[in-house]
């Protein structure tokens, strides 16, 4: 019962608009994750367990994992389903061969400074995710 209540009421607020604006600093990520840490301690008998053990017992993933998974699903939607023709110029496959796999994405330089908003945009942050995964996991596209 806890899991269904938590996923319906608490996690939906924590993950609101994460695809558009993911937390940009580690401090914000930790603050959001601490909400889940505190909520999992409320369950009877779990307060003395470590955070990963509580998550394992409740069968819940970390919020960092869910953000990463959501970004991968967003990439899959862009390349696999519906938006292949309207991708921005900064989110295109590489023209040249790569050592890692043939699904490498080209990464443009930032134009809004070191700590600008572009660094945390969906297209900029998912290039590292896509380029870092092995070819077997990207052949779904």
Q: How would you describe the overall organization of this protein?
A:
This protein is mainly α and 141 residues long. The chain folds into two domains: 2-60, no CATH class; 66-138, no CATH class. It has six helices and no strands. It has helices spanning 2-14, 26-41, 51-58, 63-81, 122-132, 135-138. Helix 1 (2-14) runs antiparallel to helix 2 (26-41). It is elongated and about 55 Å long. It starts with a helix and ends with a helix.
Key words describing this protein structure:
141 residues, mainly alpha, 6 helices, 50% helix, 0% strand, elongated
Short description:
By secondary structure, the protein is an all-alpha fold. Helix content is 50%, strand content 0%.
Mean pLDDT: 77
Share in β-strands: under 5%
| Outline | elongated
- How many strands, which pairing sense, and closed or not: the largest β-sheet? none
Helix content: 40-55%
Q: How far apart are the first and last residues' alpha carbons, in Å? A: 36 Å
Rg, please?
18 Å
Tally of DSSP β-strands: 0
Count of discrete alpha- or pi-helical segments spanning 4 or more residues: 6
**SSE succession:** HHHHHH
